Amino acid sequence: MGAPRAPLPPRRPEGIRWLRSDGKPNFSDRIHRSEGDAKILARRPVYTTTKTTTILGLAEDMSRYRVRAMPVVSPSDEKLEGIVTATDLVSYLGGGDLYNIVVNRHRGNIFSALLKEHVSSIMNPNPVYVTVADKLPRILEIMVTRSVGVLPVVMEDGSLWGIITEHDLVEHLAEKRIGRKVSDIMTSNVITIDAKATLKEAAETMIKYGVRRLPIVEGGKLWGMITAKDIVRFFGSHDVFRYMEGDSMEEALRAPVKLVGLSGYVTVSPDADAGDAATLMREKGVSSLLVVKDGELVGIVTERDILYALATQPS
């Protein structure tokens, strides 16, 4: 078990720093003048799932396609019926309230929990979405005020057209230099986890604090990172079955975070321009950077932070 940690302060809701006093995003004039609607901005084709897909099948697909969210559609007409995220899976696989399904309905049996439960049990049946006609300011406003990083895009009849992610919008809006330092947009109260902690502790920490990434610290030094997608991959790639000997989910959740997370990480200086941070993310193929000063972790900056900085920069 990991060493006890002092309680951390609650995190502010994502996006709150970018809102005006009237609760509206403080977008620059450049955003309001930007051409393009959701139909143009959306990524296609979209990896989707259905209500009847098993939990294991979902984890396999999310691991295979390296996505953190999947729209749930009707097989007959591609109508949007919900959305399921890596965070939902982490909650089900030991981190949150959805784990009660594993305990109560499947008596903690990992094979029953993965093969006999379906997406319908853990998905959000009322997903936040946009239509093909919605413009960039509206898309960004929904992302900021509803704190979502993935938006399904639907046609007038409710059928799925595509999907828009924070990554897509960062790519669309990217500029070499933004004129804001990383220190201005980063989150400074970084939530970490000890290298001696278990997978269950990591999952519970993610759900408790509403984060998808946890830097792993060993002996007071950074070792690597564990993300919600890593946890999904651990199950979806079947690595979990190589680790365990029995059929207990609790046994699987005793796996050390170093077994599930990845060693190594990408860092950036707090004095770097946010545009340079975006370029570094793109070059390294990561969605977040650890902010380090004089060898000490002082913050974390994500694609969401970059996106909001791009959208609210002075024209």
Number of helical stretches of at least 4 residues: 16
Strand order of the largest sheet: 6-7-8-9
The succession of helices and strands, N to C, reads HHHEEHHHEHEEHHEHEEHHHHEEHEEH
State the CATH architecture of the largest domain: Roll
For the secondary structure, the number of strands is: 12
Q: Give the CA-CA distance, first to last residue.
A: 51 Å
Mean pLDDT score: 90
Total domain modules: 2
Radius of gyration: 20 Å
Outline type:
flat
Estimate what percentage of residues fall within beta strands. Answer: 15-25%
Class from helix and strand fractions: alpha/beta
Poorly predicted sequence stretches spanning 5 or more consecutive residues: 1-14
CATH class of the largest domain: Alpha Beta
The CATH superfamily of the largest domain is known as CBS-domain
Characterize the main sheet.
4 strands, mixed
Task: Describe the fold and architecture.
The chain has 315 residues and is an alpha/beta fold. It folds into two domains: 153 residues, CBS-domain; 131 residues, CBS-domain (Roll), CATH 3.10.580.10. The chain has 16 helices and twelve strands. The strands form four sheets. The protein has a four-stranded mixed beta sheet with strand order 6-7-8-9. Strands 3-4-5 form a three-stranded mixed beta sheet. Strand 11 and strand 12 form a beta hairpin. Helix 8 crosses helix 16. The N and C termini lie far apart (51 Å). The N terminus is likely disordered.
